[in-house]
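Lay summary. Proteins are chains of building blocks that fold into shapes, and those shapes determine what they do. In this project we predict the shape from the chain. Here is one chain we studied, written as its sequence of building blocks.
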Amino acid sequence: MEHLFKGAGVALITPFKEDLSIDFNALEALVEEQITSGTDYLVALGTTAETPTLTAEEQLEVIKCIKAKVNKRVPVMLGMGGNDPVKVIKAIEATDFNGIDGILSVTPYYNRPAQAGLIEHYKLVAQACPVPVVLYNVPSRTGVNMESATSVAIAKACPNVIAIKEASGESSQVARMVKHGPEHFEVISGDDVLALPIIAIGGIGVISVASNALPKQLADLVRFSLEGKLNEARELHLQMVDLFKLLFREGNPAGIKALMEIMGKATSKVRLPLVAATPELYKDLEEELKRVL
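And here is the predicted shape, written in a compact code that computers can read:
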């Protein structure tokens, strides 16, 4: 059976107008381009969406817009994490999961739990969730690394924990999860630049930031990688590797939003405490884009 979230996923941005209100027309166009370009699934209200600075009402409107535009053509994963399992469970209980195929749940941040605490946190979240759960390990943002043994233990205890978005940058950690994880549990790259290497050691794809601007290129890269077409995958990877690095030079989503403005797909506006890309990065992105396209 094909895994629900195999292939190229996109961590959708939230496009803003000049006054920093949400540009729903741009969001609809973004969703449509992703689907028609071959993106396998969409991730809504994740880190790249600037979810912490969206009001509760805005978050509801964003997911309503995405679900309506997708109309069940591809799976949709919804970001639903936090550092208090009780609050996460209450959010799950209040959510309409019609049109939502799974959730992406980040490790608890700021309170920096022990590995045992991570296991108990996810057991509670998974038990309460009516759809599959994808773990999200991103130590650079949360202050805690979920070790491979911890992720495997969670997956073994929770049949509906079907994957992890792994963004630790530790290839050995990925390999251990691939080796020791239960059959229903897969590894998804959380970094564009590591999509090919992670797929090469047994991962099933990527949740991509760059795909917001370049969906076909990312879909092709992942498809070639999964099909074992190493030469084609390597060529695309090397073509985009410098762009991947540039996108994160001044943080995410400032880089990808600048690139999308360059391409005429959205404004570069972000909400504080984030700030827009500098003119220097904007210029470097323009030059690198010419080499990619």
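What the prediction tells us: The domain at 7-226 is CATH 3.20.20.70 (TIM Barrel).
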